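Proteins fold reproducibly. Next comes a concrete instance:

***
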Amino acid sequence: MLKHRGFPGRLSGTDYQFVIRRANPKGVSPITRRERYRDRRPPDRRADTAFMAALWRHFGTEPFERGNLDAGRLSWLFGREVLPVDDPFDPESYEALLVIDEQAARAAFPEAFDESEDWE
């Protein structure tokens, strides 16, 4: 499992984690598309925005390996702002390649692309 050095571990001041420390010995947690409803709590929306900002600053438009990125946090963005590169996509692989759909991400999380905002 690739560890993304320099990627924030969590949203500071919260328990919303962005990365995992080690591979799950019981098997890889799959990435699945989760629906984001309008009535989500503000802290949940802030965590999504901060995670997108971290992804953008770390990877930009380049494809990236899932590695130690948290499957639960990725699942909130998967299928909309974060897309699979490979076809067929293996949602249970730490080596799976993903890419940010910049247009969708900017529409959903415009504040994540604001360079003056400090998410860490």
About this structure: The mean pLDDT is 88. The radius of gyration is 13 Å. The CA atoms of residues 18 and 51 lie 7 Å apart.
